[in-house]
Amino acid sequence: MKLKTLSAALLATAAVSVSGVSMAYDEIISVRNEPVQPIQPAKVDDPQLVKLGAMLFFDPRLSKSGFISCNSCHNLSRGGSDNLKTSIGDKWQEGPINSPTVLNSSLNVAQFWDGRAADLKEQAGGPIANPGEMAFTHELAVEMLQSVPGYTVEFRKAFGTDKIDIDMVTDAIAAFEETLVTPHSKFDKWLAGDDDALTPTELRGYELFKTSGCVACHNGAALGGNSFQKMGLVEPYHTTAEAEGRSAVTGKDADRFNFKVPTLRNVEMTIRTSTTVAPRHWLKLLTSWAACSWASVSRLTRTLPLWPS
Amino acid sequence: MKLKTLSAALLATAAVSVSGVSMAYDEIISVRNEPVQPIQPAKVDDPQLVKLGAMLFFDPRLSKSGFISCNSCHNLSRGGSDNLKTSIGDKWQEGPINSPTVLNSSLNVAQFWDGRAADLKEQAGGPIANPGEMAFTHELAVEMLQSVPGYTVEFRKAFGTDKIDIDMVTDAIAAFEETLVTPHSKFDKWLAGDDDALTPTELRGYELFKTSGCVACHNGAALGGNSFQKMGLVEPYHTTAEAEGRSAVTGKDADRFNFKVPTLRNVEMTIRTSTTVAPRHWLKLLTSWAACSWASVSRLTRTLPLWPS
Question: Which of A212-216, A265-269, B40-44 has the highest mean pLDDT?
């Protein structure tokens, strides 16, 4: 069966966990010496934990209103983001920055644009208790879950106890999110040795991507997500947005407007988000290229999306 | 594989459409002469149309904000509703009435609580253009869809043309919603002849359900949804809610507070919604029963939910 859409990919992932059979794991080896590596398939060690995490990820009862779930802003039918300028939270509040994609987020050096969470588990608790996002508390979230018999059964299966705590909740959500990787793109197939996977135009795009310097920041399996870089690298960065970047975490003024580099994986589905952060960055880089060159890079990015071909 | 959760049931449904194979259809015949009939499995004649409908159902781009999809208020992980007192719309507006479940909604005599849409196709266009709900227009929704290459491909497959119109959109959403039925409950198995499917307590609950008059309104395959009844049947109905019921459609004052009878299928997942409409109705009926009788009825409703056992 060809998986043509993200929802299909998700369905397959979740189906695995529901049936309780761990997904066969085949590591994808790159035969090329490139600054970009293939995305590896998800390794599901604990399908029950992943199943529970999926239930929680889609459950709006983790918000004060009962209306907002993880999936509201990290929408799996929209490339793992909401594609909005800034995300919408409790009572229609607008956040200070856009929502990063959850896809391949396990490959990130840290979570949130400013890296204030070390990993997915630490991230998962944030939005639940953020007054501008899901506006709940960890205590009330746990109390709600504890009151739902269906959940106590699933927590017991996953943790051997039905006395729920927030650590279990974030463990499960993180385990589910770790399955949200998107291997097997055309580009991955090329890296794995299939010379015909990319067209000559796409290969020219990749060469240009490397020679023009994109790859300096957008490298690794996710083509990004593995470093922080300064907004305003090419020209001064002016913004009225509240988000100040890495300095909010380190307290150092030098880290102001230092943000995590976005992944370029599935960029065709998350581009609205990306351009919100850095339109000038794109424009500056792109205007120095001839239209045909841009077409090549654009063609390259189409080799990265979710659906295998 | 046992499907224990709604998401799992949904996954199975959607997986069928994605793989392009029509689901095997086995009619369930009742061997009993009862006022309640088994829910029939979905008959999928056009998997491509169902697949397209699923894409649309989950797509928040059909709303002005890009944040609200059909699934926001008819959440398939929450029994097909949002379980809120009234649903949340564009800019956090609160509607005049709660959101009915989409599950088994193809069995309804008409759509919306006041029956103002004849069928699911007619219903599907309503929320998209309602300024208090998704707050979009049909023209802009179609324009958005037309701008997404992935959608034009799917519309071409479903309709033989990629010139999209709103009729195609509502056709597809309705086709998907028609698959959202929940057959194979314990109660259905009992109707089909499995004497051991219900416990003696559950059977006592069903007898009580019939002898105490519940079944007068809550009958048919969906145990409701097939007639309009007057709120205030048992005692005067006082409300500050705006929804006036059937009179909004017929213009007749006699139809004021005439609402569609809710289905009791999966009532354990949608009870918060139901009690919002008619707490007094429940209370009045229930207080006349001994606690043990209520336990029996409650046990019965547990035989109706989504998951087959």
Answer: B40-44
Tokens 């929320």, residue?
Answer: B127
Q: Measure B170 CA to nearest chain A CA, in Å.
A: 19
Contact B55 A84 (CB under 8 A): no
Q: Which of B52, B145, B22, B8 is nearest to A10 (CA)?
A: B8
Would B2-177 and B186-301 be classified into the same CATH topology? yes
Catalytic residues of A: 133
Mutation pick from B11, B50, B148, B179 vs chain A, by most beta carbons of A within 10 Å, is B11
**Tokens, residue B178:** 């028609």
Quote the distance between the C-alpha of residue B5 and its chain's center.
17
Domain residue extents for chain A: 2-177, 186-301
Chain A within 8 Å of B65 (Cβ-Cβ)? yes
Question: How buried is A272 (Cβ within 10 angstroms: 0-12 exposed, 13-18 middle, 19+ buried)?
Answer: middle
Distance in angstroms (rounded) separating the CA atoms of residues A225 and A238: 23
The C-alpha of A233 sits at a distance from chain B's nearest C-alpha, in angstroms, of 31
**Of the listed ranges A113-127, B163-177, B290-304, the one predicted with least confidence:** B290-304
Contacts A3 to B, Cβ<8 Å: 18
Considering only CB atoms, A8 lies closest to which of B5, B18, B92, namely B18
Averaged confidence pLDDT in chain A? 83
Domain B186-301 has CATH 1.10.760.10: yes
pTM of the shown model? 0.81
Q: Which of residues 134-193 of A touch B (CB under 8 A)?
A: 150
% of chain B exceeding 70 in pLDDT: 79
CATH architecture of B2-177: Orthogonal Bundle (1.10)
> In which band, very low, low, confident or very high, does the pLDDT at A26 lie, cut at 50, 70 and 90?
confident
The dihedral formed by the CA atoms of A181, A70, B60 and A178, expressed in degrees to the nearest 10: 0
How far is Cα B138 from Cα B239, in angstroms, rounded to an integer? 33
Which pLDDT score, from 0 to 100, does residue B56 have? 96
Nearest to A58 among B12, B19, B77 (CB): B77
CB of B227 within 8 A of CB of B261? yes
Structure-block tokens of residue A91: 């009572």
Q: Which of B27, B94, B122, B133 is catalytic?
A: B133
The pLDDT-based confidence of A306 (bands split at 50, 70, 90) is low
Residue A285 pLDDT > 60, yes or no? no
The pLDDT value given to residue A4 = 37
Which chain A residues are closer than 8 Å to B273 by Cβ?
none
Residue range A180-232, pLDDT digits in tens = 999 999 999 999 999 999 999 889 888 888 887 888 889 999 999 999 998 87
pLDDT at B124 exceeding the cut of 90: yes
A96 touches chain B (CB under 8 A): no
